[in-house]
UniProtKB/TrEMBL annotation:
Domain O-antigen ligase-related: 228-357
InterPro entries for the chain: O-antigen_ligase-rel_domated, WaaL-like
Location (main, coarse): membrane
Source organism of this protein record: Amycolatopsis cihanbeyliensis
GO molecular function, one term: ligase activity
Protein name (record): O-antigen ligase
Membrane topology recorded in Swiss-Prot or TrEMBL: Multi-pass membrane protein
Length: 455
């Protein structure tokens, strides 16, 4: 493989640059817009993801494009997910399918390939910690923009996404960007639904907290990261979504477990002040959020979710291994399944379910492995941050059909790929320094705060 000067590599377009451009298309182009003039509803992000997948494949055919080679747990998990999707698609299309189900299966396989192959490109195309930082900061900045658009929708009823109707695209859903709950607007930002909007904002919270709390140690300005933290947290709360609130809570628990004691106290003070401030600035918001959980037993949306289990059980019993077929369970035809794990079990069987779980579990493992093997406090904190963001999506998959929403899906695969890129970067640092990586036992002991160097 050609040896490149790190300084020159950081100044030219590379895999990280392409991943940033893909993330921009995926998060900023409104989810309701698809390419016009083709018979299938395909988003621009899907086309970009497929393009990244093609470049990833070509990069592995040669040794001159700086594409990472060698084993990587995150890459394996993403590849197995792709294989599971192709297997269940092939199984379904071997037999007769109604026209509507066949069309949905064709569209779904294309969407899944675009998102998952972008994750592969992130895993092997982001080389080094500096380029990974660029990608994560870009993702955080884009999520902040999405949050700002949603906050404006919530507070003023102004929809900036109407100005993002780009040439060559057409809307497949109405332009009604806001739903209502308890007389409050529920914004969607550029996403397809307020639930997705809230989860996307919750994913950005750990990233913003990481850069805000580490800015002083890195001798950089912190105010912009605090702005990102405020906007993403506000966006998650204003979505009025249980999935978003549960995601924020889980991410906070993960961070508090791994952070040093001093930062835990700081975070609790900041969090308490933020909640109090929101209570006074947005009347009725905190009461509505409290009511989402206090009245959960009487909520019709919860009852509708549990009513789906009987129908799903019949489908699972008929096709346990590979499912009934990717994209063939149409909500309009068979009823909604507001649980991605259940939906995957129905459509992709146990093979697909384990593959989906592998994306979240192995992505978190790669990040924790990087945290355990590194003595760099910033790297260790960044790894914990990736675990927290992935945990938001893993929990969200249990509370809504995550893979039906393109932006949440994009973040799931990109963050898994980023975790793989981080693990590889840490290993390369050990190799460059001539240091043998710690054993698994030593690495696990360093996962706890206060072990393996200062935080």
């Amino acid at each position: 493989m050609a040896v490149r000067d790190p300084r020159s590599a950081a100044q030219r377009a590379d895999g990280a640059t392409l991943v940033c451009l893909y993330a921009a298309v995926a998060l900023l182009v409104p989810a309701r817009l698809v390419l016009s003039g083709i018979p299938m509803s395909i988003t621009p992000a899907t086309v970009c993801g497929l393009g990244l997948g093609l470049l990833w494949f070509c990069g592995h055919l040669v040794t001159t494009l700086n594409t990472a080679k060698g084993r990587n747990a995150a890459r394996t998990a993403l590849f197995l997910f792709i294989v599971s999707q192709l297997a269940t698609y092939g199984y379904a299309t071997m037999h007769y399918l109604p026209a509507d189900e066949l069309d949905s299966a064709d569209r779904t396989i294309v969407l899944m390939m675009g998102a998952s192959m972008a994750g592969l490109a992130a895993c092997d195309g982001i080389r080094g910690l500096a380029r990974l930082e660029l990608v994560l900061k870009a993702i955080l900045g884009l999520i902040t923009v999405v949050a700002a658009i949603g906050i404006l929708q919530f507070l003023a009823g102004i929809d900036l996404t109407q100005y993002l109707n780009l040439p060559g695209l057409q809307a497949v859903t109405p332009d009604d960007f806001v739903l209502e709950r308890a007389d409050l607007r529920r914004p969607a930002g550029t996403t397809g639904h307020p639930i997705e909007f809230g989860v996307v904002c919750a994913v950005g919270m750990p990233l913003a907290a990481h850069y805000a709390f580490t800015a002083q140690a890195r001798h950089t300005s912190a105010w912009r990261w605090w702005v990102c933290l405020a906007l993403t947290s506000c966006g998650a709360m204003m979505s009025l979504s249980r999935s978003a609130m549960l995601g924020l809570a889980l991410a906070a628990i993960v961070l508090l477990i791994g952070w040093p004691r001093k930062r835990r106290i700081q975070a609790l003070v900041v969090g308490t002040a933020f909640v109090v401030l929101m209570r006074f600035l947005v009347p009725g918001l905190m009461g509505t959020l409290y009511g989402l959980f206090a009245e959960i037993g009487n909520d019709s949306s919860i009852t509708a979710r549990t009513d789906d289990y009987a129908v799903a059980a019949v489908q699972i019993a008929e096709h346990p291994l590979l499912g009934r077929g990717l994209g063939t369970y149409l909500p309009s035809k068979y009823g909604p399944l507001d649980n991605q794990y259940l939906g995957t079990l129905v459509q992709n069987g146990f093979v697909g379910l384990f593959a989906l779980l592998g994306v979240f579990v192995v992505g978190a493992y790669a990040a924790l492995r990087a945290r355990g093997t590194s003595r760099n406090p910033h790297v260790r904190d960044l790894a914990l941050t990736l675990v927290a963001s992935l945990s938001v999506l893993a929990l969200g998959a249990a509370t809504f059909d995550l893979l039906a929403f393109p932006m949440a899906t994009t973040l799931a695969f990109l963050l898994c790929g980023a975790a793989g890129a981080l693990l590889r970067a840490v290993r390369q640092e050990h190799v460059a320094a001539g240091v043998d990586p710690p054993t698994v036992r030593v690495a696990l002991s360093r996962l706890m705060p206060g072990r393996g160097g200062p935080e």
